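Retro notes (design track)

What went well: tokenization of the new backbones is finally stable.
What didn't: we kept losing track of which sequence belonged to which structure.
Fix going forward: every design gets posted as structure first, then sequence, in one message. First example under the new rule, 113 residues:
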């Protein structure tokens, strides 16, 4: 049986945050966007937040967080592997560096390490 570890951040903005500083598998995510404008949850394969420069470092994955809505993904038996670690940020574009007006709540479920 795989044990999932929940990770919660109540206000994700355009500042890179470290979820886990070692190899993990991402099994599920949910991001809520209270802003009228769309946002993007960027996920990075990095061991530290300092290893990522928003707008320059290419995310491993980027997911739409629709304005006044939410996005959830369940990866089931095929989780996404992050070899170095898992960092994240929410921005106004798919690979950008500009923040939305209000931070976005984020839930992740990971395994490993």
């Amino acid at each position: 049986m795989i044990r999932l570890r929940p990770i919660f951040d109540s206000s994700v903005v355009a500042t890179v945050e470290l979820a886990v500083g070692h190899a993990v598998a991402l099994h599920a995510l949910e991001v809520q966007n209270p802003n009228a404008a769309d946002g993007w949850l960027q996920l990075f394969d990095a061991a530290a937040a300092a290893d990522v420069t928003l707008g320059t470092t290419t995310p491993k994955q980027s997911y739409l967080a629709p304005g006044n809505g939410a996005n959830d993904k369940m990866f089931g038996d095929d989780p996404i592997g992050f070899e170095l670690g898992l960092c994240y940020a929410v921005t106004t574009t798919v690979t950008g560096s500009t923040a939305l007006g209000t931070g976005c709540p984020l839930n992740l479920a990971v395994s490993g390490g």
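Added context from the reviewer: The chain has a mean pLDDT of 97.
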